[in-house]
Amino acid sequence: MDVKAKLAKIVGPKNFSDDPAQLKAYSQDFSYTPAGMPNCVVKPANSEEVSAVVKFCSENSIPVVPVSSKIHFYGATIPKEGGVILDMTRMNKILEIDPENRRVRFEAGVTWDKLTKDLEKKGYRVIMPLTPPAERSVLTDFMEREEPTNQVYDYGEPLEAMEVVWPTGEIFRMGSASVNGYPDSMSKGGNPSGPGLDFYRFFQCAQGTMGIVTWTNLKMESIPIKDKVLFAPLEDIGYGIDFLYRILPRRIGQEVLLLNNLDLAAILAEKWPDDFDRLYTTLPTWTLILVVSGLLRRPEEKIAYEEHFLADVIKNEFPDLQLGENLPGFPGLRKKILPILRRPWPAKAPYWKNAVKGACQSLFFHTRPMLVPQFITGVEEIAAQYGYPIGEIGMYIQPIEHNRACRVEFNFFYDPADEEEIAVVRALYNEAAAEFLNDGAIFTRPYGELASIVYEKAAAYARTLKRLKKTFDPNNIMNPGNLCF
Amino acid sequence: MAISKEIYSVLETIVGTEYISDDPVICEAYRSGPGGYENGLGYERVMTTIPGCVIMPRTTEEVQKIVRVCYRNDVPYVPYSTGFYGPRSHPHVEEALLIDLKRMNDFVLDEKHFYVEVGPGMVYSPIQQECMDHGAYVVIGGGGAQASAIANLIGDGWSPLSHRIGLPHRRILGTELVLPDGELIKTGSLATSDDPFWGESPGPDLRGLLRGYTGVRGCLGIVTRMAIKTLPFQPERLEPTGISPNTALALPEKRIKWINFVVPSKEAQVKAMKEIGHAEIGGAVTKVPLFWRAIAKAEDKEHFWEMWGQENEETIANFFIVRVLLIGYTSEEQMEYDERVLMDIMKEVGGEARRTKPSDESWIKNADSAGMWLMCGGYVSVDYVIETLSQATEHGPAYAELKKKYTPPLMPDYGDPGWFQSFELGHQGYSEFLVYWDQDDDTDKVDQFYVDTSKMNIKHRFYTSLLGPHQPLYLTGPKYGPNYHHYMLKVKNEFDPKWMSHPPVPLAHDVFVERAPWMHNMKDWESPEDLPK
After folding, report:
1. Which residue, among B404, B433, B519, has the nearest Cα to B472 in the 3D structure?
2. Percentage helix, strand, coil for chain B under 3-state DSSP, each rounded to 5
3. How confident is the model over B62-76, as a mean pLDDT?
4. Chain B contact present for A14, CB below 8 A
5. Residue A236 and residue A330 share a domain
6. Pick the CATH number of B107-232 from 3.40.30.10, 2.10.109.10, 3.30.1490.20, 3.30.465.10
7. How many CA atoms within 13 Å lie on the side-chain side of B490?
8. What is the domain count for chain A?
9. Using one digit for the tens of pLDDT, what is the confidence trace for B361-381?
10. d(CA A437, CA B113)
11. CB distance from A467 to chain B under 8 Å?
12. I need a surface site. Which of A213, A320, B343, B431 has the fewest CB within 10 A?
């Protein structure tokens, strides 16, 4: 039996394709990563089919590229060595909603749109990153460690126990879902850790190179009863960061983030380009967005104590900070921003990063918040060298865990049809990444060309990763050509 | 293979004459027991021995050199910090080199970014005090404040204070790990910089090698440096009071206080915990077993038995206390808000506040588990698992039922179903089950009980802490994952193909069952012929 016939038999003929027209959709994404064609695509319906496909591919040394949704920005799902696209979009079931333990279990193909709507009907939500596209996989975003905008929870990571298919095809449940017979068991899957080792860690930020996660458990939270969205215009980002150092360890707020005028304009604009141009030119250099919320019990009182604390701190320590429910000059913003922070980016609208010029290359990393001004100066200097206008760099600062750290994102917008501009952005991106790496920026998600830059510096780490990968994927079939594999 | 004079001389060159010894008197001091965790049990008697040599490195580089010498010369070695884990921390094979890490006690506190950076010799007690002096606190695990913070973080690492952050794995930031062959890997932000502030590494996260749900007892290498998250606290000072051993921290009650509530039933206990978590209030929420109260009040062993002897199955079965720690993280006003919410919840479940001492005797201060040895001399937490409150509240009764079969030699505790509590704001539930015995009794049945708990967990489909090296790997392996032991052993064989790092862990309990005649009738699972004997 030939390869294609065998794969078609596993998933059914309707869920197999080697039609070049269909395959082309998998050969590129929103990044400037060079296109790469797969040989075929399969769409399994369940873990057993995933297992059978992977086992067959492992035995025949055929590359497997897992793809869980339709929206990709970093080139990670573009085949580098051909092979089989394992498209998980049919595995889109929400398997359990467990209010008792505030847990939801769902498959890899479940999108932000589906999950948020289903949970909202029951009064729940999951904490979410900034504007995840509606058709993107929730599971992938958490596996790839997208940072949520809500950072008040000490536990940080919402992922719980999950199931994977190893690169050799075995199905394996991790953490407390590993018990015999799960989910028909006393154990409900609230703990991702173990058994034996913290295997789930090996799948985080792995870009599908360590195996395939088929479903996961995730913490869910109640939707607040009442919210108050606060804004502060900032010219000096350092002043805003000092303020966050003061308030976030006191567990103030739910969502909190800092956006520069360009990013915020792109997020808010409805009519392009008029709205965008107006907002871009009139918004303050930086805007701090802070949502204080009243939870299920005594919501007004909760908001009140947070507001009293904020008022005291501002009065006594940050008198120049204008924190209020309105951003001066932008009436009605508070009503508009909350749905943006709590819902995915609608599928029918162009993603805001792509709306500016057609495409966007995002450089993001973790650092200490106090170092943010230094990195901003750095990116401006490098951009100037490449003739990229400083005012056209989008910037987003996501404070993390009581402001112990933050995620910095610099967005370089470009026209995907303009090869010259792509070359400039690419060179600028690579140089900034290399320089920032040397300055202590921490890149935990090295996509594409960034991987070689990062792993050159983390040589011992890369060596160990390769040893580990070899133990699980001896034929290197899982998404080869990514990371250091 | 014995440590030859030549190898000894090489090792001596690495650390200096003062920090290595094969003097039998020194080595004897590293014998497991006579007190401590799991003391006197068959595992200790059968599986532990004194080291052939003890060495005390000061730096990561010295650890690397020592390990390389061992690996080249087939000298088994055992990393050792404070040794809380009793027999499981000690050498299991003859002529092993014990690497005592106590000299590696560097300590840096970053107040602004809420972490401490420590070596494996650093214990919790000074960490907690320094943290509290600078607006933060740490979760001191059940090993107590004199346990190595690193050993605790890669072994267990929880307490009632885990109400806000349950899994200790999440507190691990930049870390250095010397692999069994001497290769050094740095994880988190240390992988690409000298700054340990961040825990995630580039790409797949090798923190997964440090532990599973519980630790791997050094069989995959030696952690020589770790940054650990601290949690923002409230600003008022907790004043030490009392005279040792009856010490406490006096609490500034407008910013921190314990309140004990009597509730009418177990259902009310569970409901209260879920609601408190859901309301996102509190710093700790736990059930208080009647047993704890007797331990806390007892001045000595006789006093304990005098009080405990007055209890019976009915008093145990009808004792329902929820103990809540409120912390004014934000302000006094927040503390008052939390208390109002708490009282609302307690009113709903029929709880009544009892007069509670305005002090902390244990969990913030030192997680004083020493009291657990008070009654009988022998003690072990036979399971301690983070799952959900759905599992946590059913786990203890299953243990209590099984225990009847093994009492005596286990201490009669009138069917006490152990302890459960909320972790991660009620998303998770924690259960712990403790057993006690007199080490002068015949303890063979205690060893059997221990393995029988695995069978009970498998049968009832409970998740458990007792996986990996804590039970026979070939008993639990096929039933969790399934076959997690295959993957664990693949990793072990890749990074330690000569099995030099704490052999025969993670197969030590398998070996114990083979070696101990009284365990043979317990064995109803398959294991390979070539297990280390």
Report:
1. B519
2. 40, 20, 40
3. 97
4. no
5. yes
6. 3.30.465.10
7. 16
8. 4
9. 888 988 766 677 778 888 888
10. 20
11. yes
12. A320
pLDDT for position B33: 83
Please give the CATH superfamily to which domain B245-460 belongs: FAD-linked oxidases, C-terminal domain (3.40.462.10)
Q: Which one of A51, A104, A164, A191 makes the best mutation probe of the B interface by having the most chain B beta carbons within 10 Å?
A: A191
DSSP state of B411: P
Is A28 in the same domain as A101? no
- CATH of segment(s) B5-100: 3.30.43.10
A441: amino acid identity, one letter: A
What pLDDT was estimated at residue A120?
97
Question: Phi, psi at residue B468, to the nearest 5°?
Answer: 55, -130
Lowest mean per-residue pLDDT among A319-328, A336-345, B79-88, B198-207: B79-88
Q: Which of B165, B175, B181, B205 to mutate to test the interface with A (most CBs of A within 10 A)?
A: B205
In chain B, the percentage of residues whose pLDDT exceeds 90 is: 82
Question: What are A201's strand-pairing partners?
Answer: none
SS3 A37: coil
Contact list in B for residue A157 (CB cut-off 8 A) is: 170
Q: In angstroms, rounded to a whole number, what is the distance separating the alpha carbons of residues B456 and B454?
A: 5
- Angle, CA of A146, A148 and A152, to the nearest 5°: 145
Query: Do A404 and B197 lie within an 8 Å CB cutoff?
Result: yes
Listed in sequence order, the DSSP H helices in A167-298 are: 199-203, 237-247, 261-268, 274-282
Residues B382, B398: Cα–Cα separation, whole Å: 13
In the sheet where B239-243 sits, what is the strand order?
B239-243, B246-250, B359-360
pLDDT of residue B38: 84
User: Quick one: angle between helices A372-385 and A237-247, nearest 10?
Assistant: 150
- Look at residue A480 in the predicted model and tell me its pLDDT: 97
Global pTM?
A: 0.96
Question: Per the CB < 8 Å rule, is A188 touching B387?
Answer: yes
Using one digit for the tens of pLDDT, what is the confidence trace for B297-340? 888 889 989 999 999 999 998 999 999 999 999 999 999 999 99
Higher pLDDT pick, B465 / B83: B465
Which chain A residues contact residue B229 at CB under 8 A?
401, 404
pLDDT in tens, A206-225: 999 999 999 999 999 999 99
We report the CATH number of the domain holding residue A196 as: 3.30.465.10
Residue A322 belongs to domain with CATH number: 3.40.462.10
Residues of chain B contacting A296 with CB distance shorter than 8 Å: 278-279
A274 and A366 within one domain: no
Distances (CA, A) of B3 to A347, A472, B29, B294: 68, 36, 18, 49
**For residues A29 and A77, what is the distance between their CA atoms, to the nearest angstrom?**
8
Q: Which two tokens stand for residue A159?
A: 């992922």
Termini Cα distance of chain B:
15
- Decide if A247 is inside a domain: yes
Question: Which of the 8 DSSP states describes residue B111?
Answer: T
**CA B1 → CA B7, B65, B385, B531, distances in Å?**
11, 19, 38, 19
Judged by CB atoms closer than 8 Å, whether chains meet at A205 and B203 is answered as: yes
Contact state of A101 with B388 under an 8 Å Cβ cutoff: yes
Q: Do A188 and B390 touch (CB under 8 A)?
A: yes
CA distance B206 to chain A (A): 6
pLDDT above 60 for B1 = no
Residue B517 predicted with pLDDT over 70: yes
Are A295 and A356 members of one domain?
no
Question: Above pLDDT 70, what percent of chain B?
Answer: 99
Strands B77-80 and B97-100: parallel
A122/A210 same-domain check:
yes
CB contact under 8 A, B487 and A370: no
Q: What is the DSSP string of B6-21?
A: HHHHHHHHHH-GGGEE
